Amino acid sequence: MASIPLQVTIPAVAAVAAYANARFLAYYDLELLRAIVPTVLGGAWKRYRDRVNLFYQLENLATTKSSENRVFLRFEDRAYTYAQAYDTVLRYANWLKDRRGVKRGDLVGLDFQNTDTFIFLVLATWAIGASPALLNYNLTGNPLIHCVNKSTARLVLVDPVVAGNVSEDVRSALGGVIFEVVTPALEQEMLAMDSVRPADELRSGFKDKDMAMLIYTSGTTGLPKAAIISWAKAATVANFTFRWLGTNVNDVYYTAMPLYHSTAMLLGFAHTLAAGATFAMSRKFSTSGFWNDVRKHNATIIQYVGETCRYLLSAPPIIDPVTGEDLDRKHRVRAAFGNGLRPDVWNRFKERFGIETIAEFYGATEGTFATWNKSRNDFSMGAVGRSGSLYNVIFTREVAIVEVDHETELPRRDPKTGFCTRAPRGEPGELLFRLPPGDINSRFQGYYGDEESTSKKVMRDVFSKGDAWFRTGDVLRWDNENRVYFSDRIGDTFRWKSENVSTAEVAQVVGLHPAVLECNVYGVQVPSHEGRAGCAAVVLKPSCLVQTSGEAARAPRPTDDTVKSLAEHVKRGLPKYALPLFLRVVPEGGLQATGTNKQQKHNLRSEGVDPARTGEDEVFWLRNGTYVKFGVADWKELNAGNVKL
Ligand SMILES: *[C@@H]1O[C@H](CO)[C@@H](O)[C@H](O)[C@H]1NC(C)=O
Ligand SMILES: *[C@@H]1O[C@H](CO)[C@@H](O)[C@H](O)[C@H]1NC(C)=O
Ligand SMILES: *[C@@H]1O[C@H](CO)[C@@H](O)[C@H](O)[C@H]1NC(C)=O
Ligand SMILES: *[C@@H]1O[C@H](CO)[C@@H](O)[C@H](O)[C@H]1NC(C)=O
Ligand SMILES: *[C@@H]1O[C@H](CO)[C@@H](O)[C@H](O)[C@H]1NC(C)=O
Ligand SMILES: *[C@@H]1O[C@H](CO)[C@@H](O)[C@H](O)[C@H]1NC(C)=O
Ligand SMILES: *[C@@H]1O[C@H](CO)[C@@H](O)[C@H](O)[C@H]1NC(C)=O
Ligand SMILES: CC(=O)N[C@H]1CO[C@H](CO)[C@@H](O)[C@@H]1O
């Protein structure tokens, strides 16, 4: 598996070098090694020179002749060179320090959509040895109170566009915190500060494991958790990814994913900074605006997450209003980089938009490792990682896929030995990463001020007494050809007829049906049945719906043919126990997603198929081999125990 320990030590590099002479070195290994070795050595050099702070990367680029006039940032109609951005950052830093009393080691809350100001403020906090806490701008009320409180920030700077989300109840619940909207007038005040470089002392003495920033996990259930992103993690992820993708100074990296999340912040922004390239962004994602912005900024690399590519695929082609030309392939994008691209979208996306390379990675914000695959063909379509034998030799020590107990949602322990068992090749299991048992913190910094959540991610005595491993909560399969596939999130897999059903794998099959634009699969409780029955919530192509002209806002109704062919399709593609017994047709935009376009399941799951809770949506169930309407009478029959599924 192509796994990148975020703190590989020099001895590991030496080991790698030794293996590099061996005959069995595969091409993918070489590609990865070319990225890893300089990253590791670069990290050691930074530590040695007391320069772990990413501010120094901006400074180097801004004060070197060959790069100072290169464009660093593009946003809307504005562009800043490295030198201009550096000048602005120094002024903002001095404002934070002198006018707001922010000190070395403090946290500053930033509640922003993607803007140039947001980027400058992140760099400005680093410039004075402080760290930003990146708040999800969409949060309001209790979740926002919780996130700000957890961060311990005394100052929260707010984007004027989202100021409405910081309501009076938030301000009064957090009496000691100052919320300040960054109006154009306030920005003028910041810009009027002197452009003096804050002293090195403010940034000196920080260690690899110290916090660069706080990023909140989107927390599909419960309140967000504040993951500590260390300097080592930020720099290693950034440096490894730019080397692996081959990002160079002429590249323009474009993202519309929110910068408060690690994907855009680390794999987008920090990546571009490490490469010394140009970073372009949009305020937020919009299906209709995406390609126009890509063209406007001359982007060469685009970033996607989750269902982003599916949304882009489902949109009609953009036609040039003047020439009538189809603009789908009119761009300079050479690579799409991200995570969560489903196999059913992979090829269609590449073909329609003419994109040569898809680079898919897997990793969690708070995780300690990641896996990578860059693909120009479809051999590994849908795989999140691929590696050669070299990696397997070195990293089977560091990585394990273990059998899971789906009742307790924990890795299963052998009743006799008390230890966990590695899943056989090709079988799904939870992905674990080894941690140094005596010094967990050096590799996994955990959640800020949240011992309990932190310790839940660490498992001890897994294969032997005293060892320690990081739990990803993700179920993966690692096949005999060394391809790694994402199977499911733990907790999403459900039990039916004594079998374990992976929702992600079922969704992949359903998603391949031509009528399906988007699909979300989950298990629902049905009266008088053990376990959970599969339910697929789908958004269908308009051409597969009964046209009900005149009637506004009616629930979409699939045609009989569509429903029939969906039943045939799932029966062909899935084992009997995994068939979605229920089909819920939702209107476009009806499937909830996070700010990074990742699907959410919990609401759908709790609504189940009770007609009182599914609203206007039409629900079907599989009877005698085909989908038929499911209604109140059927629900009553189920409740009365008259139906066996
Ligand atoms: C990351 O790359 C930059 C630019 O090549 C380099 O200056 C820096 O030392 C590297 N940092 C780490 C931690 O590898
Ligand atoms: C928060 O602000 C954004 C941007 O104005 C808006 O789209 C969103 O609906 C707001 N959220 C709430 C819960 O009001
Ligand atoms: C903030 O956190 C502190 C310490 O965990 C807690 O005592 C306090 O109740 C929290 N305040 C709010 C408003 O949630
Ligand atoms: C994009 O490229 C075109 C053609 O070379 C050029 O005219 C335009 O100025 C470029 N736009 C930006 C934002 O660099
Ligand atoms: C399903 O998961 C349970 C609990 O982890 C396990 O005991 C059982 O063997 C699994 N069943 C199959 C068919 O894999
Ligand atoms: C933002 O909040 C609004 C209101 O709570 C919600 O409808 C919307 O889905 C949220 N958007 C994102 C991207 O989280
Ligand atoms: C299924 O087929 C059987 C036999 O043809 C029939 O008796 C039964 O009513 C059918 N069930 C449904 C739900 O259509
Ligand atoms: C980096 C990496 O592992 N890339 C591989 C991803 O998968 C494709 C197809 O198998 C390979 O060609 C890449 O080398």
TrEMBL record:
Gene3D superfamilies: 3.30.300.30, N-terminal domain of ligase-like
Catalysed transformations (reactions): a very long-chain fatty acid + ATP + CoA = a very long-chain fatty acyl-CoA + AMP + diphosphate
GO cellular component, one term: peroxisome
Keyword Electron transport belongs to the record: no
Compartment(s): Cell membrane; Lipid droplet; Peroxisome membrane
UniProt main location, coarse: membrane
Entry-linked PROSITE patterns: AMP_BINDING
InterPro entries: AMP-bd_C, AMP-bd_C_sf, AMP-binding_CS, AMP-dep_synth/lig_dom, ANL_N_sf
Annotated keywords: ATP-binding, Cell membrane, Ligase, Lipid droplet, Lipid transport, Membrane, Nucleotide-binding, Peroxisome, Transmembrane, Transmembrane helix, Transport
AMP-dependent synthetase/ligase domain span: 66-448
Family label: Belongs to the ATP-dependent AMP-binding enzyme family.
Free-text function comment from the UniProt entry: Acyl-CoA synthetase required for both the import of long chain fatty acids (LCFAs) (C14-C18) and the activation very long chain fatty acids (VLCFAs) (C20-C26) by esterification of the fatty acids into metabolically active CoA-thioesters for subsequent degradation or incorporation into phospholipids. The transport and fatty acyl-CoA synthetase activities are genetically separable and are thus independent activities. Esterifies VLCFAs in the peroxisome matrix. The VLCFAs are actively transported into peroxisomes by a PXA1-PXA2 heterodimeric transporter in the peroxisomal membrane.
Name under which the protein is recorded: Very long-chain fatty acid transport protein
Species the sequence originates in: Neurospora crassa (strain ATCC 24698 / 74-OR23-1A / CBS 708.71 / DSM 1257 / FGSC 987)
